[in-house]
Amino acid sequence: MAHIQLKNISKTFGNHTALTGLDLDIADGEFFVLLGETGAGKTTTLRLIAGLEKPSEGQVFIDGVDVADWGAAERDVALVLQQYSLYPRYTVRENLEFPLKPKIRRLPDAEIKDRVDRAARTLRIEHLLDRKTDRLSGGEMQRVSIGRAIVRKPRVFLMDEPLSALDAKLREALRTELKNLQMQLGATFLFVTHDQIEAMSMGDKVGVLNHGRIVQTGTPHEIYNNPRDTYVASFVGSPPMNLIDGKLVNGRAVMAPLNFELPFSGGAKASGATDGRPLVFGVRPEDVYLESGAPVEARVHDVENHGVEKILTLRVGDATLRATVPARTDVAIEQAVRFAWNPDKVVLFDKGSGVSLRHVG
Amino acid sequence: MATTMITTLDRSSRAAARGLSDISIRNLFIIPTVLFLIVFNIFPLIYSLGYSFTDFRASTNAPANFVGLQNYRDLLNDPYVWSNFAITAKYVIISVAGQLLVGFGVAMLLNRDIPMKGLLTTLLLLPMMLSMAVVGLFWKLLYDPSFGIINYALGLGTFEWLSDPKMALYAVALTDIWMWSPFVMLLSLAGLSAVPKHLYEAAAIDRAGPFYTFFRITLPLVAPILMIAVIFRTMEAFKTFDLAYILTSQPTAELISIRLYKMAFQEWQTGRSCALAYIVLIMVLAITNIYVKYLNKVKER
Ligand SMILES: Nc1ncnc2c1ncn2[C@@H]1O[C@H](COP(=O)(O)OP(=O)(O)OP(=O)(O)O)[C@@H](O)[C@H]1O
Ligand SMILES: [Mg+2]
């Protein structure tokens, strides 16, 4: 339906810079997730695409056309605003009908009813259709506001944290529903969230936003396994990637302040990983394993039981690192254990810039 | 119920140190006001109700005779009084409708980002702050047939705004619209700025046109506060005296309160004028009540 491009977008509010040099390319029919902390500029990006805000610099293209002079209506986007924005004094049904009713593009009544009922079913708000919107709970309001977007057939769906007010079960259900909807319609989706699990599970592509800059875009797999820098590494994943300072000496990773060593084989893959260069070693908790003959000794600092697995916090010297182990692993707090890592999965970051050596080239 | 609302006194406060309880502080504030209201409002109200059943004349020493409902019967059968009511109704409708249109219109214009908005709003509010008598005298000069600026500007020669039987009432209403539109504007502005901006954004995203947005979002949200403006202005317009009295003496512009004034202080029919005052009071109350009922309905929607 539409191909969205942002080119070198900057946005300042007064003397506060919300976005800097942002480039984004969302392919037609793609489910793109914009992931970032609070205040990163996610909402601002959406509003720029929707035409509610003008960029201070740079251009927005929809299907290759520069839309600088187009208003929100002409851009034909559906936007789920973060603050729900339901029309007060109207019922849920009237809210859902609102976008279908303006005279110029009024649909036949049967079609309106059909679309509203379908959206209500998808979002599980059929029983609320005749309720006034000021008598809804937060989660219900949020679903009505998604509903107002999905009754339409716009060129792009923009959704600003649309699932944040829902409980875990409903959120999971709606994730699937939205994803199905997107595939059925073949629609372009730009979905904003601060929840990395949501981003990983829903996105065809994920863009990580940090302080108004896109740090990395890629498939969830790339973002997870090959983070561009230490920010992405520590933001994505739960628990996040372990980041340990150290350097390479003769094919072994030597952790400088912590005084332990681990074998490292992947060094050949990353150019620039010369001996002695200050580095940060990144390893996912699931790539850290316990073994009786393993090279490093640590103490168990904390155990979190997650049912299928346990997340251990290991203490080496005065630093800690996390390891995900099968639930049947029998450990007690303060017990001495030995651990190793999967050397193929270790990511090297430059100590100074924090950028992954694989991405530097 | 009332006492549960009163919080317990902070033991260390100065009032406590002087041995004042919360209840006595409350009484200290309320009793003078209540006394004032009773002496200057409630007492004359009841006293005049008494007079309205007599043939009392304040200009003579003759004792007042009780005549029962005679005054009311006479007044309600008097075609002249009814014509005064008709004139008043016409005046109220023209003046309130005019104020509503002008006031709300100007508020719509002001409710956006324009330079010097604060200054502009303040200047527009000035007419409302003048005294009625001053406005009356001032507009009398503006309307003057031979040297008034209105005739000059409109090129109307010596058209007699205030002495023309057909025009006089409209001229008074126009002055009232000039003076009180700012009031409606002020309330509308408060109502308009209370409409959350994101609703307009949502409507723009939903591709609603300006009319659709106005009638489906702006108007329903501003309606209650507009109703309040209408209630205030209707009550005031119904009671208009000074403006009309100063501007014109045309019988076609004789509002009910002018009739009342003449009856009371020129013809000295004190008892009968008290009765008329009560009829006016009941009418105003009735109209206000209808409005308030409607307002509550609008709010519920
Ligand atoms: N209208 C505005 N005026 C001034 N500053 C603004 C405005 N809108 C946003 N900002 C600032 O721009 C930055 C980015 O805001 P934005 O709303 O895009 O964040 P976000 O990523 O959506 O955060 P959240 O997850 O909390 O919604 C913030 O620092 C915010 O304070
Ligand atoms: Mg936001």
From TrEMBL, chain A:
InterPro entries xref list: AAA+_ATPase (IPR003593), ABC_transporter-like_ATP-bd (IPR003439), ABC_transporter-like_CS (IPR017871), ABC_transpr_MalK-like (IPR015855), ABC_transpr_MalK/UgpC-like (IPR047641), Mo/tungstate-bd_C_term_dom (IPR008995), NA-bd_OB-fold (IPR012340), OB_MalK-like (IPR040582)
Gene Ontology MF: a single term: ATP binding
PROSITE patterns according to UniProt: ABC_TRANSPORTER_1, ABC_TRANSPORTER_2
Pfam family, one: OB_MalK
Claim: Membrane is one of the keywords in the record: yes
Keywords: ATP-binding, Cell membrane, Membrane, Nucleotide-binding, Translocase, Transport
Keyword DNA repair listed: no
Family matches, as SMART domains: AAA
ABC transporter domain mapped to chain residues: 4-236
PANTHER family: MALTODEXTRIN IMPORT ATP-BINDING PROTEIN MSMX, TREHALOSE IMPORT ATP-BINDING PROTEIN SUGC
Family that this chain belongs to: Belongs to the ABC transporter superfamily.
UniProt-recorded name of the protein: ABC transporter ATP-binding protein
TrEMBL record, chain B:
InterPro entries in alphabetical order: MetI-like, MetI-like_sf, Sugar_ABC_transporter
Top-level taxon of the source organism: Bacteria
Membrane topology value: Multi-pass membrane protein
Keyword Transmembrane helix: yes
Domain ABC transmembrane type-1: 85-291
GO cellular component, one term: plasma membrane
Keywords annotated in UniProt: Membrane, Transmembrane, Transmembrane helix, Transport
Gene3D superfamilies from the UniProt entry: MetI-like
Spans through the membrane: 28-47, 91-111, 118-139, 167-192, 213-232, 275-292
Pfam family, one: BPD_transp_1
Subcellular location(s) per record: Cell membrane
Family from the record: Belongs to the binding-protein-dependent transport system permease family.
Protein name: Carbohydrate ABC transporter membrane protein 1, CUT1 family
Organism (species): Mesorhizobium qingshengii
